[in-house]
Amino acid sequence: MRGKPNISAAAMAAFFAIVPVHAAVADSLQVSPINLILGANNTGILNAVNRGDKPIAAQIEAFDWQQNNGKDVLTPSTTLQISPPIIRLGPGKKQIVRVRVTAKPTGPQERAYRLVVSELPNPADQAKGRVRVLLQFRLPVFVGGAQTTPRLLAWTATEFGNNLVLRVSNRGDRHVKLAGLHVVAPDGRDTTIEPASFYYVLPGATHEWTVSGTHVAPGTSLHVQGVEEGAGVKVDYTVVVRR
Predict the structure, then answer these.
(1) pLDDT (tens digit per residue) in 142-153
(2) Hey, how many other C-beta atoms are within 10 angstroms of the C-beta on 210?
(3) Whether the model pTM is above 0.90
(4) Which domain holds residue 49?
(5) What is the predicted pLDDT for the residue at 114?
(6) What single-letter DSSP state applies at residue 121?
(7) Which residues of 101-140 are buried (b: 16+ CB within 10 A; e: fewer)?
């Protein structure tokens, strides 16, 4: 398992979409936790802290989160409530943000949301003509789905010229968070897919990777290995390459 450091970023909001951390930090704004699983009463809490020496403000927006053809699709949510939706923090100050889902469960499948936290411009910086990068990061929120439900993943591997196309389908009722994925061939050859990245695969969704320059003959048995960080277990699936 990986450690849980706080990581600062100076330029890329997308950083927080691909790198696993314990608390999201944008310049002086820190928000935790970055993976919110709501309890039986469909409520949860975010903690926002200003670690800097200047006042900051941020807007928090709620979105329904779905996946289509391996891509995230965000739609403004009418069932995920945020209070307060805008936070203003002086240096060293803290703010509790309450999160609540109003919709009742319609089945056993987990529902997924995203909170989009966006820094707001500082009027003092604008008045002085200062240019400052404003960051944005996305926090996943999950509700429902039995905690004891096993993960059900189906893998396929397809030869495509000199490339190998891997595809995973989540047939379970809860999301999976895959990290450190790599493919091991029968001769011991180990090919890393994307070592520094992790991927959420929501219930009923799929994700696909193309591993370039990896020619594997059809009929070959491969091991897909890595970590399912949500459950804290290792991934080790055997998949036969098809044409």
Answers:
(1) 998 766 667 789
(2) 13
(3) no
(4) 6-143
(5) 97
(6) P
(7) beeeeeeebbbbbbbebbbeebeeeeeeeeeeeebbbbbb
